[in-house]
Amino acid sequence: MGFKFYAPASLFLLLLSLPAFAYGWGVDGHAIICQIAQDRLSDPAAAAVEDLLPNYAKNNLSRLCSWADRVKFRYRWSSPLHYIDTPDGLCTYDYDRDCKDEDGVKGRCVSGGITNYTNQLLDYGNSSSESQYNLTEALLFLAHLMGDVHQPLHVGFTTDRGGNTINVRWYRRKSVLHHVWDDNIIETAEERFYNDNVEEFTEAIKQNITGEWSDQVAKWEKCSDNKVACPDVYASESIEAACDWAYKDVKNNTQLEDDYFLSRLPVVNLRLAECGVRLAATLNRIFG
Ligand SMILES: [Zn+2]
Q1: What spacing in Å lies between the alpha carbon of 237 and ligand 1's midpoint?
Q2: What is 23-287's CATH superfamily?
Q3: If you average pLDDT over every residue of the chain, what do you get?
Q4: Environment of ion ligand 1 (residues, CB < 5 A)
Q5: CA of 25 to the centre of ligand 1 (A)
Q6: Domain boundaries, the chain
Q7: Smallest Cα–Cα separation from 32: which of 281, 269, 249?
């Protein structure tokens, strides 16, 4: 698959061509995750990430954390790699049952994508021959897809397309439930509590990681059976959170306000924190 980084002009055109609804945490959600991860990288992982990132984004994985969303229409094959559809109403995820695209091709879901790009990146530093893969592309996909698998509605029900077909009002504005979890909760939190500033929000989550949640971090980082990546665990957590929090008490045309926002924001905070910690842990295992 040919690959190059876009010049600013074509990047601008790509941004203009974004669809009406997005498919991942919004830009801020992904940037928060990648910033948390960047700051937790081991020395070898930080060196590898710096080596693989293009010059204009050196030392800052968070700048390119939404790259995979921007190339979705150029790389049409990649679009099923951002989510998982699970059976309506079941609230469970099963790799063999659920990780496939609309044509039924197995492994073409966000969990399969994470495993695939993790395996590609294990080629890094393999001196015997140059990798057959584009490892810059693999890094950017992995960093992004780890974010997506932690967004509860990226592992949602098939018929409503992870909440994309559920119309809601976010306070006064029209939205869809999926977009509430990608963007609206994060944006409203930034407006209300963090001076409209993504860095301040990121800092607050980082303080929770080293404070309130510090005793859970080792558990988040762990990946059983000596595996390098554990996306199926995260996908199962996501569909559970989707049922317990995202879908709960929401019907078509429900107006969502403070009750919903204030009770769901802690879930969003936790998922962003877990994801940042796990992305770093995964990169540390890959490049360790
Ligand atoms: Zn995505």
Answers
A1: 18
A2: P1 Nuclease (1.10.575.10)
A3: 91
A4: 23-24, 69, 82, 148
A5: 7
A6: 23-287
A7: 269
